[in-house]
Amino acid sequence: RREPLALINLKKKNEETGEEELASRLDHCKAKATRHIFLIRHSQYHLDGRADKDRTLTPLGREQAELTGHRLASLGLKFDQIIHSSMTRATETTEIISKHLPGVKKISTDLLREGAPIEPDPPVSHWKPEAVQYYEDGARIEAAFRNFIHRADAKQEEDSYEIFVCHANVIRYIVCRALQFPPEGWLRLSLNNGSITHLVIRPNGRVALRTLGDTGFMPPDKITRT
Predict the structure, then answer these.
(1) What stretch or stretches form a coiled coil here (predicted)?
(2) Distance between the two ends of the chain, CA-based, in angstroms?
(3) Distance of alpha carbon 139 from alpha carbon 170, whole angstroms
(4) Is the pLDDT of residue 80 over 80?
(5) Which of 83, 86, 60 is nearest to 192 (CA)?
(6) Residue 82 belongs to a domain with what CATH number?
(7) pLDDT tens, residue by residue, 4-58
(8) Number of domains in the chain
(9) Within a domain: residue 12?
(10) 145: part of which helix (H) or strand (E)?
(11) 100 phi and psi, to 5 degrees?
């Protein structure tokens, strides 16, 4: 619903100026800037933690976050913000990454928490959450997609560079939705810990995937996928 025609009230069209005024109003609602979305998967964490607060980053996970932060800083981009999942492993990853990007504001959100976005097709035998999870998590993760992944606002003058630190399931679902691929295929994608996925959203709404799960900046012995 971000097409210019969806943002104006056609009933208010001036009968005297007609199409000329309509064109002017449409132009006023058109996006001008490109959004660059960097989706970062959290680093390796302790899988044996019972509660979220116990699932902290491992020593290797902290190293991975340092490498990811260094990589993002080396791109030389002016990042606008870091939005991260409120889960412990994502928050800790964000804190380490942000040390390499001083001055970039951090925002925590429950929308990006890990979950079961939609029943995968084909199904897998090793992962079968309760059906209710798809209804609860799926609605939230879809809300995250609609809230964060869209063309720039018409008022935005310059290109933006935003970082989202979250989870594999969330990123895989967002990528499928953004590229208009069947979202049921999200589980066919695989992401390493600390990896970088780069989406570009043009003013006309077109989306391009520049990198998916990039960890080429990490030494081979630092790469994990837990």
Answers:
(1) none
(2) 37
(3) 12
(4) yes
(5) 60
(6) 3.40.50.1240
(7) 766 666 665 555 555 666 666 677 778 899 999 999 999 999 999 999 999 999 9
(8) 1
(9) no
(10) helix 131-148
(11) -85, -10
